[in-house]
UniProtKB/TrEMBL annotation:
<dbReference type="InterPro" id="IPR027417">
    <property type="entry name" value="P-loop_NTPase"/>
</dbReference>
<dbReference type="Pfam" id="PF05729">
    <property type="entry name" value="NACHT"/>
</dbReference>
<dbReference type="InterPro" id="IPR007111">
    <property type="entry name" value="NACHT_NTPase"/>
</dbReference>
<protein>
    <recommendedName>
        <fullName>NACHT domain-containing protein</fullName>
    </recommendedName>
</protein>
<feature type="domain" description="NACHT">
    <location>
        <begin position="674"/>
        <end position="830"/>
    </location>
</feature>
């Protein structure tokens, strides 16, 4: 009271605040009923402010069906609730508030009349609830705790304090409540808040009030009496009155009213006729009948108080922590709860529209946050890709089967994008058009146990329609059993409707699960995304092109699902790299000429050799002007024709070929499918391939030209290839396309399969092992099956025969530089390396110096084969490097002539090159300010290390088998160094080796590797390494190579025999000197070598090939081998070994040699044995001579003077078994 006197209270503001709090309390109750009803599987309608239905119990009307019931009117049950939020909970509910019929918050009379009105309607009333935040006053209201637990505030207390009050009120009738808190309740019960629930206990006192005071009919009677007047007669026992009107008249009489002379006026509508009977359909509100005892009993049973409800602030927290947490992560619960409360309050505030919330609407409202997240994820996926109508219709057909099952599976390489197709398809069905009618989520969101619990709760929600859950396994492939428990706890009806569609990667089908397979294709994309793919730009072998440029008119055959993912979704540039063409320096390139042995009379001459007509020849084979051989015979017939064809090509006649023909990629008569380029070492075979690549890419930038260094890919070519594996070989073994680029790989596969817009260049056929060569030929023959595939292959001349025969194509021979080419090349080289010489007179000096050098070379070298030496581009470049320092001096002195002595033997040039590299390396080191005597000594050690490292690299480059490398160059164990230290030293030496100028870093199979600038550098170093072990005169600078027998065996059995070591043998031949001393004593290492050579020759093997017969091509090496045998074996033994070596040898080959010295040396190991002599003579005469006189003359030339005529089979005829053979033998011996 004192506070009210001292401070004026704004009653309107207080009332507004109370109303606002009450509205929020009601909104929370509505939300609570919605969430918990959904959780328990009810189909329901929530109504509010419907006095026509609930009268004074209309704050919340809960109309519902229990789980499992069908939707018929008899199954609906009702709970009516009136919410009374009391901010001051200390103000408890008193007996007076309950008994007063004043229409206030807790007036039982008011609620009884409302209950009777509801009861008359015939609803199946579950209960009528007064829900309040306060409690009953224990001093006024008796709580019957019999058979129930007392609430905490009503526990037994000290009775002395209340005895007087109880004695005073003992005689007064009590209102008694039964505690039903422990009875089942699924909505108005909380974990964090203790509430109590009570029913009125039926007694005579309360029953009397309800039947005689509080019923509607008694209240109406009192009202009528109060407003009665004496203005007219009332109807007495009119039969037109309703039963309610008659009972009202009786009640009025009992209340003492004189009804005979009174006339009533009611403040109602003027057309209202009180009590008059109407047709049933016209009656809106019938007059109530009198309350019966059954009505009162039902009221006591159905009317419930729920007290100690959480207040407005507590309530929100309970909704978050006990209800919303079942569907949302904790962090999202406040937001979702606030949203649901706001929507509920807003809907409830629109009284004119009538509030009704159905269970379907409740689910949408509750799961609105889930729907938002699902829709957001759906839109994210749709940003990446969308599909056309046809693709969606096909998926819709598949979904028809899937949606009939509880759990189903879609396997696909791209789960995310198949999910877009699934969503687009499922939305075509009417029941899934609305937002929130299905959910889509990532599988990762189902891994956490709490997440799984929430999704289980979501899927348990009972709905008129099932809401499928689409699970997208973006990166993982979880077991399907992980999802079965998500719907295992649902009731049978809900479980039947619950659907989970799992979309995951993989190809495996699950036996127990309905499974469909899906793949994303280019043709399924809608027009927008198809265009986006085709307009994507990529770097294609150095050129920027669009995907559309590369796929042409068949995008659906190239662009697979992984390509779509790479081109559209991955934020990276697609780069299809160009091959390494570094060996072609465009600024130095000199256009080259190639020739082919085919000419106009070639077929005629071939027919003559075969003793057939040209028509008969054409029945066996045809040769096109481009050198392609079309065979119509097989096996031996083909081989015999080829033998004569090869002999004809050896005559040397040839025609020049236009470069445009060789690089032409267009189909037509001029196009050559296979180009075999032959040239000696250093003629620029790799360079011309690189130049062809450049020119072809200029003409056809969309063509994929694949240049393969066979040496770098030698390991891959150890594997044979078939038609079935050829595509995989290029893609997976050679890694032509980047492994991480699906589009590059798919485009390559398509190009190879179709043969369209693709060409192959195989460089270095002669540099790989025999097994690899066979596999390369097999691969090229397979590729040749596609006539549109262009192929190039380079080789040295000694490897050309098998290529020509197997590929049915005559080779093109790369011509060496003529003198003008040499001058042009020297000038270009020096100008590019001496940039400071830009003054005009310096250019003149360079030009004149180049002409002088070329002229001196021409004068120095008299023989044609020697003059051709500088015509080899590599040798020309070496000369340019070697003479660059003299040119620099000449420029400084304004001189133009070459003064240095010129010795252009191959060996000298390479030695001079190394000396030049060494000099430059030293000069650079000397320029260092820290260089001194110690530095000079250290540099000498470094140079030794570098040359040793280069030799090791040379062996590794040329020797295929790793174990052979280890044999030739044993590991230099340094136990005092750690692996890290050894690796660091190796890297330093490698870096110095690169600076030395003979090697570069290149990209091989998968990692950067070292490579010589030219293979001949490796061959020279390997030959020098062998020579240091073979040199008979060398007493100091020798290595330990032949100290062990295994080393000698390896060198003899492989290096001195196999074709791929031909270059090494040539260099070794130059290094070895022919000794004139027949009595020289061999060192022990070479005696071991000779014994290994003996075993090699005499052991069972290919009798047609051995180190001695192969060495005939290199005379110094041949003499060295014989010297070793002579110095180790006795005369009979060495004769036996040599004759064994030549046992199956065709002696007619000696007719091709330039002199008879080699033949004379061989014959020195033969005695006048009739068998051997007869065999040798027959081989000289077989298919060779027209008569014996010619035979004798040729043998004399062979034995006594150099041959002057070229060897030609046309000179010889068969003369076997002729009596004059003895004369030939005599002349030879």
């Amino acid at each position: 009271m004192s506070e009210s006197r001292g401070k004026k209270v704004d009653t309107k503001q207080q009332l507004s605040s109370d109303l606002s709090i009450g509205a929020m309390f009601e909104a929370k109750l509505l939300t609570l009923f919605c969430i918990r009803a959904l959780e328990n599987g009810y189909i329901f309608e929530l109504l509010k402010e419907r006095k026509d239905l609930g009268s004074r119990l209309d704050d919340l009307i809960f109309k519902y069906q229990l789980p499992g019931n069908t939707s018929t009117s008899q199954d609906w049950q009702y709970r009516y609730l009136q919410a009374k939020h009391r901010q001051d909970t200390s103000k408890m509910i008193s007996k007076e508030e309950l008994e007063n019929d004043d229409g206030k918050d807790f007036s039982l009379a008011k609620y009884f009349r409302a209950f009777c009105r509801i009861l008359r309607r015939g609803d199946n009333i579950q209960d009528c609830i007064i829900c309040t935040t306060t409690d009953f006053d224990p001093n006024d209201v008796v709580i019957d705790t019999k058979d129930c637990n007392l609430p905490p505030h009503q526990a037994q207390a000290d009775t002395t304090a209340t005895e007087a009050a109880e004695a005073t009120k003992a005689s007064q009738p009590k209102i008694t409540l039964n505690d039903i808190t422990d009875q089942d309740e699924v909505i108005l019960k909380f974990e964090s808040k203790k509430t109590s629930r009570y029913k009125l206990k039926q007694n005579e006192y309360m029953q009397e009030k309800m039947m005689n005071e509080w019923s509607n009919i008694h209240v109406l009677a009192k009202a009528l009496i109060a407003c009665a007047n004496k203005e007219g007669d009332s109807r007495k026992n009119d039969d037109t009155l309703s039963d309610g009107a008659k009972q009202l008249r009786q009640t009025l009489t009992e209340k003492g009213a004189n009804l005979e002379n009174c006339k009533f006026k009611f403040p109602v509508h003027q057309n209202f006729e009180f009590g008059q009977k109407k047709e049933r359909e016209q009656i809106v509100n019938k007059l109530p009948l009198k309350v019966t005892e059954e009505d009162v009993k039902t009221f006591f049973n159905k009317f419930i108080f729920v007290v100690n409800m959480p207040n407005e602030a507590e309530f929100k927290n309970i909704l978050q922590t006990e209800d919303m947490i079942k569907y949302y992560p904790k962090i999202e619960c406040p937001t979702q709860t606030s949203y649901m409360l706001d929507v509920t309050k807003e809907m409830a505030s629109k009284k004119d529209l009538g509030y009704k919330l159905k269970s379907e609407d409740g689910i949408r409202l509750l799961l609105r946050g889930i729907t938002i997240v699902s829709s957001k994820y759906q839109k994210e996926l749709e940003k990446e890709v969308q599909f056309n109508e046809d693709a969606c219709n096909k998926m819709a057909i598949k979904l028809s089967d899937l949606l009939d099952n509880k759990i189903s599976l879609i396997v696909t390489p791209t789960p995310k994008h198949t999910a877009v197709k699934v969503v687009s398809s499922i939305q075509k069905r009417p029941e899934y058009k609305e937002n929130g009618s299905f959910f889509i989520t990532k599988s990762i969101d189902l891994e956490d146990n709490e997440d799984r619990k929430r999704w289980k709760n979501i899927l348990k929600l009972k709905s008129e329609f099932h809401r499928p859950l689409i699970v997208v396994c973006e990166k993982d492939t979880p077991e399907l059993s992980n999802y079965e428990d998500l719907i295992s706890d649902s009731d049978e009806q809900t479980a039947k409707k619950s659907k989970i569609i799992i979309i995951r990667d993989g190809n495996a089908y699950e036996n127990s699960i309905v499974t469909v397979k899906d793949e994303i294709t280019y043709g399924e994309l809608n027009e927008k995304f198809q265009n986006a793919v085709l307009e994507k730009t990529i770097t294609f072998q150095g050129k920027t092109l669009t995907v559309g440029d590369l796929v042409g008119n068949e995008p659906d055959k190239v662009i697979d699902y992984l390509s779509i993912e790479e081109l559209l979704f991955q934020k990276k540039d697609v780069n299809i790299p160009r091959p390494d063409t570094s060996e072609c320096e465009e600024s130095l390139y000199i256009k080259r000429q190639l020739t082919m042995v085919f000419h106009e009379s070639f077929e005629n001459k071939l027919a003559e050799r075969l003793n057939c007509t040209i028509d008969e020849l054409h029945e066996k084979c045809r040769i096109t002007p481009q050198g392609e051989i079309n065979w119509f015979v097989e096996n031996q017939d083909r081989e015999s024709i080829w033998k004569e064809m090869k002999n004809l090509t050896d005559e040397g006649m040839s025609n020049a070929i236009e470069e445009s023909q060789l690089i032409c990629l267009d189909e037509g008569r001029e196009r050559i499918q296979i180009v075999i380029i032959s040239g000696v070492a250093g003629t620029g075979k790799s360079t011309i391939l690189s130049n062809y690549y450049t020119e072809m890419k200029k003409a056809k930038p969309d063509h994929w030209i694949i240049k393969i260094n066979l040496v770098e890919q030698q390991t891959a070519f150890l594997e044979s290839v078939t038609e079935d594996t050829v595509v995989d070989f290029f893609v997976d073994h050679l890694h032509i396309a980047e492994d991480k680029s699906p589009f590059s790989r798919s485009l390559l596969r398509h190009r190879i399969k179709t043969g369209q817009r693709i060409a192959f260049m195989f460089d270095g056929y002669d540099e790989i092992g025999l097994d690899c060569q066979k596999n390369v030929i097999q691969l090229m023959k397979i590729l040749a099956g596609k006539e549109t595939i262009k192929q190039y292959v380079t080789t040295r001349p000694h490897m050309i025969d098998e290529l020509q025969f197997e590929l049915s194509q005559l080779a093109y021979h790369l011509q060496i530089f003529n003198e003008q080419h040499q001058i042009d090349y020297l000038v270009k080289y020096w100008q590019s390396n001496l940039q400071e010489m830009e003054r005009e007179n310096n250019s003149i000096i360079i030009q004149t110096f180049a002409e002088s050098l070329a002229h001196r070379v021409s004068q120095t070298l008299l023989r044609a084969e020697e003059k051709s030496f500088i015509g080899v581009p590599l040798h020309c470049r070496i000369l340019a490097e070697c003479y660059q320092s003299e040119l620099e001096n000449n420029v400084a002195a304004c001189e133009t002539l070459v003064h240095q002595h010129i010795d252009l033997k191959s060996l000298y040039v390479y030695e001079r090159l190394l000396d030049t590299k060494l000099r430059i390396f030293r000069e650079e080191k000397v320029k260092s300010p820290s260089f001194n005597q110690v530095g000079s000594h250290a540099m000498d050690l470094s140079i030794d290390d570098i040359e040793s490292h280069l030799t090791k690299l040379a062996i590794e480059t040329l020797v295929v088998e790793r174990r052979d490398v280890t044999t030739l160059w044993p590991s230099q164990q340094q136990y005092f160094h750690s692996e890290a230290e050894k690796s660091e030293k190796e890297n330093k030496i490698t870096d110095l080796g690169v600076k030395y100028g003979l090697i570069v870093r290149s990209k091989g199979d998968k990692q950067s590797k070292l490579q010589f600038l030219h293979r001949t550098f490796a061959e020279y170093l390997f030959a020098r390494y062998l020579h240091r072990g073979m040199d008979i005169d060398n007493k100091i600078n020798i290595n330990q190579l032949f100290n062990r027998k295994t080393h000698g065996n390896l060198v003899i059995n492989k290096v001195l025999v196999e074709k791929n070591y031909d270059g090494v043998r040539v260099f070794l031949n130059f290094m070895l000197k022919k000794t004139e001393d027949t009595e020289i004593e061999l060192p022990k290492r070479l005696q071991k070598f000779a014994k290994s050579l003996k075993e090699h020759i005499t052991s069972p093997r290919d009798q047609h090939t051995n180190a001695l017969t192969v060495a005939l091509q290199t005379s110094n090496l041949f003499h060295f081998l014989l010297d070793c045998l002579d110095g180790t074996l006795n005369k009979p033994e060495r004769k036996r070994v040599v004759r064994s070596a030549f046992q199956h040898f065709d002696f007619a080959i000696f007719l091709c040699k330039s002199n008879g010295q080699l033949f004379q040396r061989v014959l020195s190991y033969y005695d006048a044995d009739a068998v051997d002599v007869e065999r040798i003579v027959k081989e000289f005469l077989h298919d060779r001579y027209y008569d014996y006189a010619d035979a004798v003359d040729e043998v004399k030339k062979l034995l006594h003077e150099p041959m002057t005529l070229p060897y030609s089979p046309d000179f010889y005829v068969i003369v076997r078994n002729n009596e004059r053979a003895k004369d030939v033998v005599e002349e030879m011996l």
